[in-house]
Amino acid sequence: MTIKAPRGTEDVLPGEIEKWQRIEQTARELFLLYNYREIRTPLFEDTRLFERSIGESTDIVEKEMYTFLDKKGRSLTLRPEGTAPVVRAYLEHKLYAKGGVNKFFYIGSFFRYERPQAGRNRQFYQIGVEAIGSDSPALDAEVINLSLHFLSSLGLKTLHIALNSIGCSACQPLYREKLKQFLNEHIDKLCDDCRRRTESNPLRVLDCKKEGCVSILKNAPSTLDFLCPACKEHFESVKHYLKMLGLNYQIAPNLVRGLDYYTRTTFEVVHSGLGAQNAVAAGGRFDGLVEEFGGESTPAVGFAAGVERIALAMDGEGVKVSDGKQTFTFIALLGKEYLEGGLLLLNELRRSGISAEMDYEGRSLKSQFRVADKLGVKFTIILGQEGATLRDMVKGEQEEVKREEVVSILKREK
Ligand code: ATP
Ligand code: MG
User: Fold this and answer.
1) For 381-409, how does the pLDDT look when each residue is reduced to its tens digit (9 = 90+)?
2) What is the distance in A from the centroid of ligand 1 to the CA of 126?
3) Which of the listed CATH numbers 3.30.930.10, 3.40.50.150, 3.40.50.1820, 2.40.10.220 matches domain 17-171+227-316?
4) Contact 377, 393 (CB under 8 A)
């Protein structure tokens, strides 16, 4: 029996991983510039955390969570998203006590039982930020700006922002009623899930990706026509700041997110080369979530970007990331009896910060050189009884050197 990686999971191999490292390193450097600090939360949480925040009648909670009982019968869930865990940690560790805006970023894997396709996995990686503690529209603009700055720093070009506001607890109920009315008028043409959700959670219908539903939803009433004066003013300011920062956006009048905790601003960063899974990043405001978990009313905004989709978009745009650092030196032995001398030199080189490799198998000099060639090393040290020979692999020249000088010579060459 051959065992393969579970459906919807991926191995990221050397050769591909360098791109991932570049993505993560760019995020770490850039997010710090914006004063966001890293947070790491557990891979699994109390199931209720997600049920209460994402919402009972969302796809994620209804059918996509990896939920299991532990040996003491506690219900745990592999995290399907990053915002609820960050808010939980924020409250659990009283991070609000410092006052002001608390800014976090995270990098890690998330789990949803979805139908795997290009850019859609069951274990996937997200890089996200959350800014907790202000309802200023300038912070929405900052977060949107950061998402674009991040993606364009990775060399992505064909990006655009889809922007919307879905209102707050004051204006959403009226919109929900209007939407429900509209959906009921077209109820026979909606899919089974959407029919059910027309009653339980009509906003979720807007997120349906089935063709039949999408074409009906084109004529659905827009959240934007129902915003209360405060939400309207907020949205106008977000747009103003985005323009001021020179960022283009397209209004997407029914852009909602698949999670119930969102309020006001919602946005997606779309990459035109990605086909069906075209959102590389998505986010918005979640002004009610901290309070929902028992904290003081604390507005917040954030986004999450999908690493697999960023990597696909980079491939699509031909962004090249080098294969990482090559090994600098190879030690070739003239005979098995020099193995210990080789091991000692290998250790010295590595401890001096010079990357080095050797062959432990006692192979012929010819096959050792073949390995050195494959590694693409700059120097090979041939070790025998009489000190060492240093071969410059690029120039094809070699010279006798004293054994005790090998490390200092190579240090100079590095
Ligand atoms: P989609 O509409 O594509 O399903 P979503 O609205 O469910 O995305 P979010 O929960 O907002 O996505 O997550 C933010 C980002 O994480 C997405 O824009 C996408 O890049 C990535 N993402 C989400 N789900 C997956 C998945 N199953 N596989 C790979 N990436 C994903
Ligand atoms: Mg989804």
Assistant:
1) 999 987 899 999 999 999 999 999 999 99
2) 8
3) 3.30.930.10
4) yes
